[in-house]
Each structure stands twice: as structure tokens, then as C-alpha cells.
Design a protein that fits this description.
This protein is mainly beta. The chain contains one helix and five strands, in the order αβββββ. 14% of the residues lie in helices and 38% in strands. The two termini are 20 Å apart.
Length: 74
């Protein structure tokens, strides 16, 4: 596995605490996914069987909290 391999279901509390500091508390860890609040969008990382261990998408919401757009995260 490569150096950047990340599988959300293997996420540890230490990783989550580092991310909380980095994203000002806007992180949520689920069973097989994590979300990160970037302000203008939410990044979601979902377990996958690929070289990275996950797939990521950027989710954009309107003022009412409805999903209005999504893009594959780079």
C-alpha cells in the first residue's frame, strides 16, 4: 500500500483529533466514511477497494441544507 493510503473505517482517534484542529472542528467520522467541513462545501471520503482506499466527493448545499451539486474531490 502507498504512503497516502487512507481507509475511513480504519481512522483512529489520533487522526480525527489532528483533523479537528485542521478543519476547526468540522469533521465527522462514521463507520466507513469521514466528512470534513471546508466552509463552502463538505468533503466526504468513503471506503473503497482502490489504490487510495477511498473515494472522495465535494458536496455543495443551498441555504436550506439541500444538496445542490457534487463533484469528485481532487
Amino acid at each position: 500500500m502507498g504512503k497516502n493510503y487512507f481507509k475511513p473505517s480504519n481512522y483512529e482517534i489520533e487522526n480525527a483529533l489532528k483533523e479537528v484542529l485542521r478543519y476547526d472542528g468540522g469533521i465527522f467520522v462514521g463507520d466507513n466514511y469521514t466528512t470534513k467541513d471546508h466552509g463552502d462545501y463538505i468533503e466526504i471520503n468513503i471506503d473503497a477497494d482502490n489504490d487510495k482506499g477511498h473515494v472522495s466527493y465535494d458536496l455543495y448545499f443551498d441555504e436550506d441544507g439541500n444538496l445542490k451539486d457534487w463533484k469528485k474531490h481532487r
